[in-house]
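Notes taken during the Thursday session

The instructor put the following on the board and asked us to keep it in front of us for the whole hour. The protein is Chitinase. We were told not to look anything up and to reason only from what is written here. First, the residues (507 in total):
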Amino acid sequence: MRSMRSLRAVLTATVTAVAAVGLAALSGGTAQAATPLPAHVFAPYFEAWTGESPAALAAQSGAKHLTMAFIQAATKGSCTVYWNGDSGMPIAAANFGADIKTIQGRGGDVIPSFGGYTADSTGTEIADSCTDVNQIAAAYEKVITTYDISRLDMDVEVDSLDNTAGIDRRNKAIKLVQDWAAANGRKVEVSYTLPTTTSGLGATGLAVLQNAVANGARVDVANLMTFDYYDNATHNMANDTQTAATGLYNQLGQLYPGKTSAQRWAMVGITEMPGVDDFGPAETFTVANATQVYNWAVSKGINTLSFWALQRDNGGCPGGAAADNCSGIQQNTWDFTHIFAPFTSGTTTPANDFSVTATPASGSVVAGSSATSTVKTAVTAGQAQTVGLTVSGAPAGVTASLSPTSVTAGGSSTLTLATTAAAVSGTYTISVTGSGTSGSHTATYTLTVTGGTGHQCTAAAWATGAVYTNGMQVSHKGHTWKAKWWTTGEEPGTTGEWGVWQDLGAC
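Then, after some discussion, the predicted structure tokens were revealed:
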């Protein structure tokens, strides 16, 4: 089986004695009526081992729903599960309970996920680890009642796909939980997250669903991991998502011949991996790909959009390999979340929006020469719009220009930074701002100048929010300025001869 999500942290687990929990726990559990998830929901994975607050990250990103990864046993053979397999993080309100209540209070929810690459490759996925179906069902029920949630996710990959006994136990336990929920008037959904080919589930993934049908276990969502194909081909990841999901749709027709076309599409889930996946650059899911997948998912009426993982939705490591905390591509923080978030509740067309990036994002020049960078724009939601481009931050001795200064989102401009011999040696941040009807976005270029004959200013740089009084000096754009009276927010060089700032000359 090919390696998937190979860069996830390997979680250490403390060996502890655990008490067995029987099926009696099912009949005794609280059966509150948790709020069902929307018919169409965006729920990116949240890496629960990082120590971050899921409620805080949900608020920052705009993702109302999260898939919480992962729940597993601490040791192979155990029937007790913990967050991340960490025996110090039992399934209890003290662990993530307050965060989950906060998310639910905002109208969202979480989907706890069992399994994942680490558990599935070490025998600590609960159905692989525990041979007692009743205790597996009790573990599922405890998560449902502890956090008052309405969906469980089963992430089954690598070795767990070949464990036929574990597959059978898992589906039998799911059936027990579903019967318990029905008897108590509670709706509980189950999603299966499975690896895929570009044309649908492979034989082992399909066998998981076939076994669910045989055991009478209802599968509400079949969620495809549309990444890590490892087939040594160069991929258009958006197109491959569509063919993979269409293949699954056809397979669901064989498994559930009584379902309508709309009902089968409503069983489909898609989980992308933003940026560079574990295979490498040949499998790169771009911001433009995300827009294509979003529009297609809305048109088909699929159930779930997700990606691995929320902590990766930033451009902190452009040009790098797959990582747990960045996408490996140039992007704005939360670009992918902002594209997918309107999917929740199903019919919202995203407002027009765009991104701005600079490639390369840095460069070094000898004073007297020039550097260039390509400023790229992309449609991140809705339709293309006109984007006006401006540049700021160039110090004395550096002239910054853009050609053209206006593009249609998706187009590019060239940033030219021309220096004179009198430029001051140092490193500067040049900002390129794109402005459109939806707002503005900024990309930065770091320019290093060497060999300049100019002198470095010694006064502190002017700050827009600082308060200055009579006689205080600042440096700004290669000049030293002195305040004539109290001021704040007035940029030196813009207030005229009789303004608050006196120009003391170049520095």
